[in-house]
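Quick one, tokens below:
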């Protein structure tokens, strides 16, 4: 009888230990799963925040460039180049605004076109959304390109520079699709 009681006690103790171990395994498993899920959620939130930060920095970069463009001196040059300059053909343009005779006038051209090329480049590199650029400076890009395209085409031919102002042309073509006149 004592042997039977001992065996019975051993079985009860064994069953009790198995139950406790199973509960511990379940608690351990649940803890591991919760930890893994927490890490995954943390990584996802970090990636989303990083993407938003990058987007914000890109927009800030573009707006810094745009604000530089809106300074009085640069804006005055842009108004002159876009609205006030008149010429008959390529030779007339260089007679009136070329660097040989009118370096100050030509530097206005350089400032404006450099700015437009920069805007085109950051759009081409997808540093900012093209719709954002189109909404902010689309009309200016369209006005510039439509006024100066014949001059630039002639410039490309005469000086064998087929890529003069490629980023401005790229920006014009993109904006033309987004904002047709």
């Amino acid at each position: 009888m004592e042997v039977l009681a001992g065996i019975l006690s051993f079985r009860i103790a064994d069953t009790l230990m198995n139950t406790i171990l199973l509960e511990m395994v379940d608690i351990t498993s649940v803890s591991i799963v919760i930890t893994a899920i927490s890490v995954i959620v943390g990584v996802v939130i970090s990636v989303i925040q990083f993407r938003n930060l990058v987007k914000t920095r890109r927009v800030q970069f573009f707006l810094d460039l745009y604000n530089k463009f809106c300074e009085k001196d640069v804006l005055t040059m842009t108004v002159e180049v876009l609205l006030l300059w008149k010429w008959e053909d390529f030779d007339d343009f260089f007679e009136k605004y070329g660097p040989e005779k009118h370096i100050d006038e030509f530097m206005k051209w350089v400032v404006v076109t450099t700015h437009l090329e920069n805007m085109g480049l950051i759009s081409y590199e997808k540093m900012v959304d093209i719709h954002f650029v189109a909404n902010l400076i689309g009309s200016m890009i369209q006005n510039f390109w439509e006024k100066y395209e014949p001059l630039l085409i002639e410039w490309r031919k005469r000086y064998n520079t087929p890529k003069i102002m490629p980023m401005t042309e790229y920006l014009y073509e993109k904006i033309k699709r987004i904002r047709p006149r």
